Amino acid sequence: MSLFGRLMRDRAAAIGTLIIGVLVLVAIFAPWLAPYPEDVAAFHLTDRLQPPSAEHWFGTDRMGSDVFSRILFGARITITIAVIAVGVSVAIGVPIGLVAGYYGRFTGGVLMRTSDVFLAVPQIVLAIAIAQTLGPSVENVILALSLTYWPFWARLVYAETRALKGQTFVEAAQALGASDLRVMVLHILPNTLSAIIVRTSIGMGATILTAAALGFLGLGAPPPAPEWGRTISEAREFLPEAWWYAAAPGLAIFLVVMGFNLLGDGLRDVLDPKLRKGR
Amino acid sequence: MRRVELVLSRLVWFVPTLLGLIIVVFLISNVVPTDPARIVAGENATQAQIDALREQMGLNEPLIVQFGIYLRDLVTGDMGRSLYTQREISSDLLHRLPATLELTFAAMILAIGLGVPLGVISAIRRNSLTDQILRLLSISGLAVASFWLAMELQMYFSTRLGWTPLNGRISGFGPENITGFVVIDSILQGDWASLKSALSHLILPAITLSLPAAATLVRFTRAGVLEVVNSNFVLYETAMGFPRSLIVWKYVLRNALISTVTQIGLVFGTLFAGAVVVEAVFDWPGLGTYAVQSILQSDTKAILGFSILVGVVFIVINLLVDIVHTFIDPRVLK
Amino acid sequence: MNESLLDVDGLSLGFSGEAGFAHILDGVTLRMKPGEIRGLVGESGCGKTTLASAILGVLPRHALKIRGGTIRFDGTDMLSRTATADQARVRGRKVTFIPQDPFTSFNPVFTIGQQVDELMKWKSPERENAGVPRHPLFTRYPRARRRRDRERILSTLASVQLPQPEQILKKYPHEVSGGQRQRLMIAMALLPEPDLIIADEPTTALDVTIQAQILGLLRKLATERGAAVLLTTHDLGSAYEICDSVTVMYAGQDVEAAPVDAFFNAPAHPYTGKLLASRPEGAGGMTGIPGEVPSFYDPPPGCRFAPRCPRATADCKRRPDPSHPGEGHMVRCYHPIDAGSAAEAAEIVGAER
């Protein structure tokens, strides 16, 4: 059975894929799906803080904008941040892990100790420090997250490379005179891919949560961007009366992160049975 | 003896890791310098005044010299002055550390007390309805944004129902400061009113904070137990008629916990990190609130100090985990 | 009937999994008298270990399907789902176990002493009721009994020839050798003063050089203490050396049971004949038996050896009833080898030549 077919047989993974699929579609088609696309920037102060109704499914916010429309547009920000930040982390972490694992001893030691330094502080703390220094913007959030999350992929690839290095097929390739680069890219890297894919799916969820927390602390996209974390922080002063205002973005974050976690679990079961334990 | 060796070998890495951390954080906070002199001088200061301040604060020195000075002061426990509170950053941090540790430990206890038993139950009832529900709950626990959950709990239990205080750490003056942990201080002084107040303030933040950690522990414990439960020694113990509950809760759990304990360092990290955001919501007077205030004030040195302190706590916790590991898994010492 | 200690009667069971139902044991009958040392022999995968595990009650519950038959130990129904309290009293006390792999059968994170103590806490011969209390996690180990149990432990460890028993008890399992671990397992099997010890290939994980020592020790101590032993093995040589009698299994069926002399000198079942002949020192040299062991998912009807048996006829599609060619000798075959006829024996062996 194809990989996708096996994945879809796992109920959890199928739900996760569905959620992520919807997220991507929403992000792409937000301007057409949103009932009030202009509300990303426009405001109607006479309609502020209206409870959910047929016109405004998730009610309106403090500016009278449609919360539902803003959530749909927020998906764009979330997915942009997560995809680029995780992409950059993978692009930094994987080569470092590969080189460190392949050359072992000194080079490996230095590179892995460097990643230890980054792991010595909780990711959000480091991300806060970086994002604060650079100032609030989506680009800086992406940069902060990339700089803090790469060690996870480095560690993972390092461990896998170490394990693969002693295997016969790698030694055979070396004996046949393949260059180090060739062995790393053509022989070792493909064998670490499934672990990388699993870690990436789960990493997306973690990244989205951290990005939302940065937004909540005021370090994300500046207003009036419909970023979910920021929306929750804006909603705070209107609780408990305007409960929908905070509930909608909170649930959106929950659903999306859940989607990536479910997919990650499913991928792990399908791709990498030996990784089954733990997260 | 092997245990001492192992601990020493970890300690050797303590200093370079910490130094690396300081360098990284220092560099980060100096990449795009928001000019601290401008903040200190105030909005109406002239350029000349600012320049004088820059000179006085050592900001005109090359970065490497600034770093050397920072490091020299740091060794003596001097992290500089906070632009915001106007006090020594190190004393601010030490003053606030107990509040954060109290919250983190409370969340840790909740997470372990909830996560480990539920993980065991989930594993021994594998694929039952109970297991399915627990797995769904644990994966949900990892997907909730803690600041949002904090707000929702606060809205429901404090604002709507009025069961718990809205924010803060204690009402009134509280007990005399002995350990800095108000719960412990209240007990030490037999001040039951303060204890009640402290616990009622503590419960919501602790629950919020513990949720993702508990979820992680459920997943790890479940996986650990499943791995152990089919091993030969369980078969042997069963065949020899050891009581079933003893096999599960003593012999299997002890083995399963080996992988869980190595995760506790990580879990503590997530708790400590989560505390930053949760504290901000509950106005908990700990390091997290301090960090958020410093961010809002662009108080670079305070953030630097905060990051270093968190790094130290983090490294120490991981060291402790390694030591505990040698006690529960004697094979490590082989 | 009443003199038998263990009575397995017509036991049929199997496991259902993704590939369907695996019918592992098919109408197995096994009787043991008190003090008897019986070998349970057959090739790997013939159901020996499953039978031993069924008696011990350690088969995985969720996939297990019992199709019929009984296991009775000294009056206790070991299969009943209602007599669990009685079963708990039997297990570890009247029936003990020596596992196949002494390396992994100790719990790696407790000292040997802690594990032996735990056994004696529940299964000491002095304990009135060997069953499970309501709160085992909070049950005390009475101090006086603990002291007396300690002496028992030390003397038993000495009797299995372990040097410095006090030191060994303080060690973790990974700190002692494989041979010592198996001696410890024997000691633990003897400590509750059981009526029956089930030893599942107790020496296969050990060096050849110490296998004989360990088996000799097991026989000597069990005989001294009047415990019966059920020894599963695929090694006919060790069965010959230490057993009083032998039961042969093939593909989940018992085919023959005989006193050890009759088994080796006058085998009645064609499979037993082939098995003896296929030994390196047997008449046939290392010939092996042509054909393959049938799949448990789709076993042949009747005698499962029939597809590989040169004597098989249409009758063999039905499982033969036991017949008794001699005293204590049982065989399930329509066409048994005539014990007296050397020509027949030669024919069996010669068939492969």
TrEMBL record, chain A:
GO terms for biological process: peptide transport; protein transport; transmembrane transport. It is found in: Cell membrane. One of its GO terms (cellular component) is plasma membrane. Coiled coil: none annotated. It is a multi-pass membrane protein. Residues 75-264 form the ABC transmembrane type-1 domain. The chain crosses the membrane at residues 12-34, 71-104, 116-135, 141-158, 202-222, 242-264. Its main location: membrane. Belongs to the binding-protein-dependent transport system permease family. This is Peptide/nickel transport system permease protein.
TrEMBL record, chain B:
GO terms for molecular function: dipeptide transmembrane transporter activity. The chain crosses the membrane at residues 12-32, 103-124, 136-157, 202-221, 264-282, 302-328. Keywords: Cell membrane, Membrane, Transmembrane, Transmembrane helix, Transport. It is a multi-pass membrane protein. It is found in: Cell membrane. Pfam families: BPD_transp_1, BPD_transp_1_N. Belongs to the binding-protein-dependent transport system permease family. This is Peptide/nickel transport system permease protein.
From TrEMBL, chain C:
InterPro entries: AAA+_ATPase, ABC_Ni/Peptide_Import, ABC_transporter-like_ATP-bd, ABC_transporter-like_CS, Oligopep_ABC_C, P-loop_NTPase. One of its GO terms (cellular component) is plasma membrane. Gene3D superfamilies: P-loop containing nucleotide triphosphate hydrolases (3.40.50.300). It is found in: Cell inner membrane. Transmembrane segments: none annotated. GO terms for biological process: peptide transport; transmembrane transport. The keyword S-adenosyl-L-methionine does not apply. The keyword Transport applies. GO terms for molecular function: ATP binding; ATP hydrolysis activity. Residues 8-276 form the ABC transporter domain. Keywords: ATP-binding, Cell membrane, Membrane, Nucleotide-binding, Transport. Pfam families: ABC_tran (PF00005), oligo_HPY (PF08352). It is a peripheral membrane protein. PANTHER family: DIPEPTIDE TRANSPORT ATP-BINDING PROTEIN DPPD, OLIGOPEPTIDE TRANSPORT ATP-BINDING PROTEIN APPD. Belongs to the ABC transporter superfamily. This is Peptide/nickel transport system ATP-binding protein.
